[in-house]
């Protein structure tokens, strides 16, 4: 299991750990954007979750590492 990104919301991390099965067990998907589920659309809700440090992937969390990146995420979240 990989380590979580340092800025992830601790409550969200606990939720992910409950949802994700131990290594080797499959069949329980965790969607990047629970609002859109399996449709994989990046709606404003996805960016709102990233701004709350609730991104599933490390790159989601890294999306808001700089002031410019954060500003852009805010624009997409609107």
**What characteristic shape results from the CA principal axes?**
globular
State the total count of DSSP E strands.
0
Instruction: List SSEs in N-to-C order.
Output: HHHH
The average pLDDT score comes to: 80
Helical content, roughly?
A: 40-55%
Largest sheet: none
Walk me through what this model shows.
By secondary structure, the protein is mainly α. It has a domain at 32-78. 44% of the residues lie in helices and 0% in strands. The chain has helices at 10-19, 44-51, 58-62, 67-77. Helix 2 runs antiparallel to helix 4 (67-77). The protein is globular. The N and C termini lie far apart (34 Å). The model has no long low-confidence stretch (mean pLDDT 80).
């Amino acid at each position: 299991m990989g380590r979580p990104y340092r800025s992830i919301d601790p409550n969200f991390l606990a939720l992910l750990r409950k949802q994700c099965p131990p290594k080797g067990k499959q069949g329980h998907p965790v969607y990047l954007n629970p609002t859109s589920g399996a449709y994989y659309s990046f709606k404003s809700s996805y960016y709102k979750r990233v701004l709350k440090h609730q991104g599933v992937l490390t790159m989601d969390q890294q999306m808001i590492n700089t002031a410019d990146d954060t500003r852009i995420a805010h624009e997409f979240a609107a």
